[in-house]
Amino acid sequence: MKKTKAVQQGGNSSLFQPAAIRLFCSALCMALILDGAEPSAAGAAGDPQTSTRQATAKPGAKPVQLEPVIVTATRVAADAGRVPAAVTTLKSEDIQQGRPAIKLNDALVRVPGVFVQNEENFAQDLRVDIRGFGARSAFGIRGIQIYVDGIPHTLPDGQSAFDTVDPEVIAQLEVLRGPISALYGNSAGGVINITTQDGPAHPFWEARAVAGEHGLWKSLLKGGGQNGALNYFASLSHVESDGFRAHSRAKSTLFNGKLRRDIDAASDMTLILSAVRTPEAQDPGGLTAAQADADPSLAAALNLLYGAGETVSDQRVGLIYRRELFARQNLEVAGFFNRRDLENAIPFRFIELDRRVAGGRIQYDLSGMLFGYAHRLVSGIDLQHQADDRVNYDNIGGEPGGTLLLAQDEAVTALGVHLQEEVDLACGLSVLLGGRYDNVRFAIDDHFPSDADDSGSKTFDQFTGRFGLMYTVHPGLRLYGNLAQSFETPTTTEVVNRPEGGGGINPDIEPQRAVNYEIGLKMDLGRGFKLDAALFLIRLEDELIAFRDATDRVFYRNAGESRRVGAELGITKRFGQAWRFDLAYTYLEPEFERYVKQGLDLAGKHVPGVPEQRLFAELRYAHASGVYAAGSLRYAGAFFVDDENTLKNDPATVLDVRLGIEKKLRHWLVEPFLGMRNLLDEEYNNNVRINAAGGRYFEPAPRRNFYGGLRVSHQWL
Questions:
Q1: Of 24, 335, 480, 587, which has the maximum CB count within 10 A?
Q2: Which ranges in 92-215 belong to alpha helices (H)?
Q3: Cα angle at 681 between 659 and 579, to 5 degrees?
Q4: Chain centre to alpha carbon of residue 269
Q5: 390-419 tens-digit pLDDT
Q6: Contacts of 253 (CB under 8 A, 6+ apart)
Q7: For the chain, how long is the longest CA-to-CA vector?
């Protein structure tokens, strides 16, 4: 079994390699050929509580003109086709239908420009990167802003987590690709905006259970409805897994709730609650290439010895007030609080973290006429404060020992002010101009008694701008271009982890900054065919790169200058009344332009952790009787695992299939389903630990495995 290969020389690469150009152009030509097919009726996807998800159009029906897709990742509701940026929207059926719905990897792999790893390691959360932003993450999510129902799930220091988001409560997921700090501030190399379900007009309840190999089990109960001016929804789920690898067992229980009251015809108030308890999430660690080849189910020896893993308790509450002030003028005020307690056992250390986060935002938008032209203005203020109480002990078999290694309070305060104006000019041309100022302050109060006082503070501030143009050739074809900036501070973990040891702030680490140049097109001709394409160039200064020492601790350094050149293509095509084809292709060439590491010049080397080419394709069938089936293929090209480009992670092609039937019987809906993951039994790595010491880069993925489930719901009509 061969998972990796050594590389003799990194070398320089061309701006766009000929093979990538041919593949991109071939996919584009295929899309245009597909669009030449006979017009067909698009199957309507119903809400999982009120109807089945299959197509319902009758034979001989006229083609259906779908409603515009409305997104809010732009801070205000807008037609996705009119946004001068790359935006992808997924509905609940793309996330849930016939899938285990344990994490969001099945949804995010469908999006061009997005690369997802680590879906099997519950102690590390998903690793998500958008156009390379987030690829540096050793665990969790970095460099990407995540919002759920208008409440930020990204901390003021730039860390994010998905562990309080259940895929089975998502109504819509939006991915805004590319730097967008002019709207969202720190760590906005991309935006993932999630809207969860509301209660339907008629109350319902639903139960769902999934079982699979490697001890996988998930159970879910949810329900909601509308009672006069009150809309309510709640869900409770539990997940257990033994894991494919040794020492990878996990258990987690998650609650989500939403309560909205219409105050009057112009205003409403929404209460949002979530809580997660993860009493066990083991971390099997990384293996060398030889270990992964010999037995991919092994756990790393150090992780076994030190009982690596974590326990997490997290609670969130948010309150949002919305009001239409006057005609086409809206005000939104939000406040939120998050408490997170973490115990994390890693080799040689046991970390106890007590975190409190509080914040709020005010946003105002208006639309109307400006000097005879239609315009839209949005402005706002964001404020967050994060307070961490961090204590480190020595690790004795996965438990805290008696030796104190670190004790300090860490605080991050982030303030941002943003303003954006969009104007529709004559001849189908619109222009967008926006800017934002951010101030992020890190402060550390050192309580470690046995060394010098490492207390101190550091402030990063930045103005970022955005300029966009969109030209409407006709309503179904739009061209756009944009220039956008972003900046990304190191997180608290990255600031306090100093290679030389001790506490305080690492004085040698700085934020990374980026500029994104992009052109694209959006095509929706109303014949069941949609196409989005984008070409971009991103230039970065002081890119943050992760590395590990012999104890597997993660540290960060800045890499001078780098660039990313890329192309993205997304296609959706419906055939007849039952068939749908989706394709997402990504080409991304990340390269260091200036980076000297321990006296070694790495200019021209590829940035590790980012595949050059990725492809997702799915063919889905949904009959009016309720029977559905789908096959999806995902390909990730080879990529380097270290800065020096001495070793590559091999490419992987993974095929998944699923089938089921949704049957509605009066007020009941019953859906049994089955699925097979990795049908081709591919040997590949589920995650790669960049720049790991001792060559322990690889976390192998499960081989071919099965799952099955049953969904039952009832609605009172």
A1: 587
A2: 92-96, 105-108, 181-184
A3: 30
A4: 27
A5: 999 999 999 999 999 889 899 999 999 999
A6: 236, 237, 238, 239, 276, 277, 278
A7: 81
What structural domains does the chain harbor? 4-715 (2.40.170.20)
DSSP 67: P
Supply 395's token pair.
Answer: 């690790």
Using a 10 angstrom Cβ sphere, with 0-12 exposed, 13-18 middle and 19 or more buried, the burial of residue 389 is: middle
Is the Cβ–Cβ distance between 395 and 389 less than 8 Å? no
- Interatomic CA distance for residues 109 and 420, integer angstroms: 31
Give the 3-state secondary structure of 441-477: EEEEEECCCCCCCCCEEEEEEEEEEEEEEEEEEECCE
What is residue 694's DSSP assignment?
A: G
Whole-number Å distance between alpha carbons of 310 and 300 = 16
DSSP three-state, residue 290: helix
CA distance 300 to 318: 40
Instruction: Provide the residue type at 668 as one letter.
Output: W
Find, among 125, 213, 120, the residue nearest to 700 by Cα: 120
Name the residue type at position 201.
Answer: A
| Cα-Cα-Cα-Cα dihedral sign, residues 402, 403, 405, 410 | positive
Of residues 437, 356, 369, the one with CA closest to residue 186: 437
Mean model confidence pLDDT for the chain: 87
Model confidence at 188, in pLDDT bands (50, 70, 90)? confident
What pLDDT sits at residue 354? 97
Local confidence band at 470 (pLDDT 50, 70, 90 cut-offs): very high
CA 609 – CA 641 distance, rounded (Å): 6
The closest of 441, 439, 440, 422 to 431, measured between CA atoms, is 422
Q: In what order do the strands lie in the sheet with 190-196?
A: 86-91, 170-177, 190-196, 145-148, 151-152
Q: Which residues contact 148 (CB under 8 A, 6 or more apart)?
A: 164, 165, 194, 196, 272
Tokens of 625: 């009787």
**Integer Cα distance of 704 and 675 in angstroms:** 11
pLDDT digits (tens, 9 = 90+) for 642-673: 999 999 999 999 999 999 999 998 899 999 99
End-to-end CA distance of the chain: 57
Residue 26 CB partners (closer than 8 Å, separation 6+): none
Ordered DSSP codes for 209-271: EEEETTTEEEEEEEEEEEETTEEEEEEEEEEEE--SSTT--EEEEEEEEEEEEEEETTEEEEE
pLDDT on residue 454: 72
Using CA of residue 290, residue 294, residue 297, residue 302, what is the dihedral sign?
negative
Nearest to 243 by CA among 168, 309, 170: 309
Q: Give the separation between CA 507 and CA 650, rounded to whole angstroms.
A: 37
What is the Cα–Cα distance from 106 to 297, expressed in whole angstroms? 23
CB atoms < 10 A from the CB of 240, how many? 15
pLDDT confidence of residue 551: 61
**Could you tell me if 223 and 206 are in contact, meaning their C-beta atoms sit under 8 angstroms apart?**
yes
Contact 85, 482 (CB under 8 A): yes
Is it the case that residue 543 has pLDDT exceeding 90?
no
Residue 211 class from Cβ within 10 Å (0-12 exposed, 13-18 middle, 19+ buried)?
Answer: middle
626 in Cβ contact with 661 (< 8 Å): yes
pLDDT digits (tens, 9 = 90+) for 239-285: 999 999 999 999 999 999 999 999 999 999 999 999 999 999 999 99
